[in-house]
Amino acid sequence: MTAIQKALAEAIGTFWLVFGGCGSAVISAAFPEVGIGLLGVSLAFGLTVVTMAYAIGHISGCHLNPAVTIGLWAGGRFPANEIPVYIIAQVVGAVAAAAALYLIATGHADYNIVENGLASNGYGDRSPGGYAMGAALAIEILLTFFFLMIILGATDGRAPAGFAPLAIGLGLTLIHLISIPVTNTSVNPARSTGPALIEGGAAMGQLWLFWVAPIIGAILAGFVYKFFDGSGQDVVGE
After folding, report:
1. Could you report the per-residue pLDDT of 71-99, keeping only the tens digit for each?
2. N or C end of the chain, less CB within 10 A?
3. What is the DSSP letter of 80?
4. Please, what is the angle between helix 83-105 and helix 3-26, to 10°?
5. What are the TM regions of this chain, as residue ranges (predicted)?
6. What pTM, to 2 d.p., does this model score?
7. How far apart are CA 62 and CA 69, in angstroms?
8. How far apart are CA 193 and CA 91, in angstroms?
9. pLDDT computed for residue 230 by the predictor
10. What are phi and psi of 28, to 5 degrees?
């Protein structure tokens, strides 16, 4: 596949993740009597990854997340020279999805972006459960670490074939079930950037944490998983 093909696949896939995941929170969860709630939103994020893994996994690897791309590099699974193209494509897809979601959400007379937002991430007074910055930093590092461990393990050549998308999607669902009350769940800098750019204000002011923490967690997981591959050597190209 060419770099353009891979980038386009990543942009489309990340659009689907943000539109499906954040869209479920903004649109479907807004109806308490029939809404999907925290469990439904968590499942929605997981399902976007499962569906896209089957749709574009064979094209770009279906990263959909700058932390995943960097974590795979740290684990010896991805070449450094392709990182910028992937991250740019992922952010473009996320911003486009947030813009599309905003366009649709504003079709409802009661929607107000200041009050309702676009499922952006936050801490302190922007945390759904009122969790402080330290707690947000810790949980984003920890859960991104485990997310990358799941990805690296499920896509290992020694793992059962064909089940990686399910393991990764279910892993992301569990991560959301744990951390929506803390940060609204990021573990994905692109997912955080799209809604924050459209919302602006405080969402942009706190965006730094949702780049720093996931990338730290991803790099740690990449280095740790190298100890499990039997050689500690990079496997890019194998």
Report:
1. 999 999 999 999 999 999 999 999 999 99
2. C
3. G
4. 30
5. 7-30, 36-56, 85-105, 131-154, 166-187, 207-228
6. 0.94
7. 9
8. 7
9. 58
10. -75, -35
Count the alpha carbons within 13 Å of 96 in the hemisphere toward its beta carbon.
Answer: 15
Predicted local distance difference test score (pLDDT) of residue 234: 45
Q: Where are the alpha helices (DSSP H) in the chain?
A: 3-26, 37-60, 66-74, 83-105, 113-116, 133-154, 164-183, 189-199, 202-205, 209-225
Rounded Cα gap, residues 49 and 62, in angstroms: 8
**Domain assignments of the chain as residue spans, ordered by start:** 3-229
| pLDDT (average), residues 111-121 | 92
Position 232 pLDDT exceeds 70: no
Q: Which residues of 195-211 are buried (b: 16+ CB within 10 A; e: fewer)?
A: bbbbbeebbeebbebbb
Q: For the chain, what is the mean pLDDT?
A: 94
Residues 6+ apart with CB under 8 A from 164: 53, 57, 151, 154, 155
Give residue 203's identity as a one-letter amino acid code: A
C-alpha span between 193 and 206 (Å, rounded): 10
Overall average pLDDT of the 191-200 stretch: 98
Q: Which of these CATH numbers, 3.50.30.50, 1.20.1080.10, 3.40.50.2000, 3.40.190.150, describes 3-229?
A: 1.20.1080.10
Distance in angstroms (rounded) separating the CA atoms of residues 224 and 99:
37
